[in-house]
Amino acid sequence: MAEPSAPPTAPRAVASERDALLATKLNVPGSRPGLVPRPRLSERLDEGLRRGPVLVCAPAGYGKTVLLAEWAQRGQVPAAWLSLDSGDNDPARFWRHAVAALDRVRPGIGGRVGPLLGPSAPPSFEPLLTALINELAAGPGGEVLLVLDDYHAIGSQPVHASVGFMLEHRPPGLHMALASRSDPPLALARLRARGQLTELRAADLRFTAGEATAAGPGIVEPLTGRELEVLELLASGRSNQAIASQLVVSLDTVKKHVGHVLAKLGAANRTEAVARARQLGPIP
């Protein structure tokens, strides 16, 4: 006797759940009122886009997501955005989301290559990636930017291998940008040697004195570079002792910097200082 088929409502229910999940991961983060423009970084990203992949790599609190979101929203190239989390270590889930993100800027691509993911994970993702690359190369939609945010959440070697395959064989119209707290285990050295990799690091992301001044009257006096470092570490939840250890300075020196940060932001405590800085733009 044939196996009974699933009730017709089951696939629709699964699709509905998937759509709700995708909606939370594929939206470019919104802009905050009063955010300080950072044209020097946007220009570097624009220049890098013409050469190859972009990597924005810095610890938490350095504004990686904010920078890429503003750039993606204002850029000339349509952006497909994917916010990653630990669940995306499943390669099928990762590429299901990535294809859905690309489908937003290249409508129809999901319907053509998505079935290769199947109802169960395929034994190899190379056929999917080959089909996706061919679709992007042959499609009439022009250039597209794929942003993979929070890539540090990925620890799966199969996912790294598949992303590496995409980087190595990406068609001319596909641009890729990754944001991560640490260097991803991809072929970065090879990309550097070819002059194809653009990298923005913590030193690049720190506010300059001019950017701190541009944050407006909410900052009583511009923060120094060291004070910005301390503020970013405060925002990440570090204690004074942890900040002292990371910056290799004395605890008294950290306390002095914290006092200066509070005074310049017009804040009564570190929680208020971080909230004030997030409102004004120096940190995300």
What does this entry look like structurally?
- With 284 residues, the protein is an alpha/beta fold.
- It has 2 domains: 19-205, P-loop containing nucleotide triphosphate hydrolases (Rossmann fold); 209-280, Arc Repressor Mutant, subunit A.
- It has helices spanning 9-25, 39-51, 64-74, 91-105, 109-113, 126-138, 157-169, 188-193, 202-205, 209-214, 225-235, 240-247, 251-265, 270-280; strands spanning 54-57, 79-83, 144-149, 174-180, 198-200.
- The protein has a 5-stranded parallel beta sheet with strand order 2-3-4-1-5, with helices on both faces.
- Helix 11 packs across helix 14 (270-280) and helix 13 (251-265) crosses helix 14.
- The radius of gyration is 22 Å and the shape is elongated.
- It starts with 8 loop residues before the first helix and ends with a helix.
- Mean pLDDT is 85; it is low at 1-20.
How is this structure best summarized?
The protein is α/β, with parallel strands linked by helices.
